[in-house]
Amino acid sequence: MTFGAVQNDRDYQATRCNENVGRGITEMQVREVLQGPKEVISVRYGRFAAYRRLHGRELVVVYEKKNEEIEVITVLWVDERRLRRFGFTRIRP
C-alpha cells in the first residue's frame, strides 16, 4: 500500500506495513510524524526513526530512505522510557 507523496523538503513515497492498522494507527498519523517530527535519529541497518506527540501519546515511525522514496518499516505507540531506549533525546513532558 502506498501513501502518496509526503512533503518534507522533497517528495517521498511512503509504504506502510499492514500490521499498523491493527495497532490503531492511521495513515494520516504516520504522515504527520514524517512531515513534522519532533526528532529524527539514525537507528540500525541504515534506518531512521522519527517521533512526534499526537493526542497525548508518542508515535514512532521507523523507516528507510531509498532514492526518492520512504519505506515505512514499522510504526508504534511508545512511552517516554521506550523513547529513551530508542535513543531520542528531545523528550519533554
Walk me through what this model shows:
With 93 residues, the chain is α+β, with helices and mostly antiparallel strands. It has one domain. The chain has helices at 19-22, 27-35, 80-86, and strands spanning 2-8, 10-15, 39-42, 48-54, 57-66, 69-78. The chain has a 6-stranded mixed beta sheet. The chain starts with a strand and ends in a 7-residue tail after the last helix. The model is unreliable at 1-19 (pLDDT under 50).
List keywords for this structure.
alpha+beta, 6-stranded mixed beta sheet, disordered N terminus, 93 residues, 3 helices
Helical amount: 10-25%
Rg value? 12 Å
Note the beta-strand portion: over 45%
Main sheet: strands, sense, barrel: 6 strands, mixed
State the distance separating the first and last CA atoms. Answer: 34 Å
Fold topology:
Layout: E1 2-8, E2 10-15, H1 19-22, H2 27-35, E3 39-42, E4 48-54, E5 57-66, E6 69-78, H3 80-86
Parallel strand pairs: 2-6
Antiparallel strand pairs: 1-2, 3-4, 4-5, 5-6
